Amino acid sequence: MWILYNLGIFLGQFFVLIAAPFNARVRKWKEGRQGLFKLIAGKVDSSKKHTWFHFASLGEFEQGRTVLEAYRTHFPNKLVVVTFFSPSGYEVRANYAKADYVFYLPADTPGNAKRFIELINPEEVFFVKYEFWHNYFKALHNRRIPLYLVSAIFRKGQFYFTWYGRLFRSTLRYVTFYFAQNQESVALLHSIGLKNVSLTGDTRFDRVAHLSQHKREIEVVSRFVNGHKVLVAGSTWLPDEELIMSLRQVYPEWKIVIAPHIVDAAHLNEIDSRFKQSVRFSTLNSSVHPKDNANAFVLIIDNIGMLSYLYSYADVAYIGGGFGVGIHNILEAATYGVPVIFGPHYHKFQEAKDLIAAKAAFSIRNLQEFVAVFELLQEIEIRQEAGNRAYGYVQQQAGATAKIIDYLAGSRE
């Protein structure tokens, strides 16, 4: 079976070689790993022990960031290596100040796992959410290096918990300890005989709770908003943008900030063409005469890494992805006390279901429902009550990071 797994990893690398000339994201993935081992060997002193934190992408980084930063505070003398699988994480956090080194993760082959672990010489390792790489996990286990899974989450129906997934459970057994997000994940791990798990909660709540307490003013956005009511639309895709364009025709007095999920020339040009009275962030930021864009009612964010701070300007937030495979991060908006709207594909996300039950979030299936919800939120009392419930939910769920650090500190006594 693991022969087939390794063959799949090999074929994936072959696909990268074929697709790289035609896809910018794949090309970045490929180029980021060229000469990687030589780069690591030249920077990292393998004679010293390191703590390794791995994040699949930028989303997982934000989810596990509070643990990494609390770890540095409690264990200041530890050297930290951070790795990313995706360019979306590496490109934004390549110079992250809390890490001693930041690299791409080499592909999960037995040889790569052995060589990478030898180079960084980890004394303990943290993976976030549900990133499972069999060869890395096995190599760490064979070397008796503790491996922790932060904000682990599982769902009934995942192949690990089916009869045909039994052979893959060995990967799960290589984990030293699971810090689980919810009781369902604890129960599922128990059901296959794994007792090395504790219900600690989701560290994303700690991260977003911190955001609302440390708001960051963005001068360009403040100037754009200029006292208007604002809809901030984050991580949008084309179906989301089409709805927002139609909504704008009904509520032209609202200003709109759009931060698309894909920030490339083609997508940005498409948004430009759809929205009248629009301006890009980079244009407004570099404008010598800001008043030249005074009539703009749509601000298009053409960079990455700013979205979590943009929601502080929102009266209402729209989160993209709900008309695709699933919604993006809704907690970054909720933490600022903002009512949240998203599409119909949200059922894999407990926080979405919780916020809907609390009447702090609203799921829509079409433009008619979008307009109806937006009409409801025109009432300032309703809007504020929904926002207050969103803020309260985030605050109540925070605290996972402290539990994890307490466990780690206790294990050293």
From TrEMBL:
It catalyses: lipid IVA (E. coli) + CMP-3-deoxy-beta-D-manno-octulosonate = alpha-Kdo-(2->6)-lipid IVA (E. coli) + CMP + H(+). It comes from Olivibacter jilunii. The keyword Acyltransferase does not apply. Involved in lipopolysaccharide (LPS) biosynthesis. Catalyzes the transfer of 3-deoxy-D-manno-octulosonate (Kdo) residue(s) from CMP-Kdo to lipid IV(A), the tetraacyldisaccharide-1,4'-bisphosphate precursor of lipid A. Keywords: Cell membrane, Lipopolysaccharide biosynthesis, Membrane, Transferase. InterPro entries: Glycos_transf_N, Glycos_transf_N_sf, Kdotransferase. GO terms for molecular function: transferase activity. It is found in: Cell membrane. This is 3-deoxy-D-manno-octulosonic acid transferase.
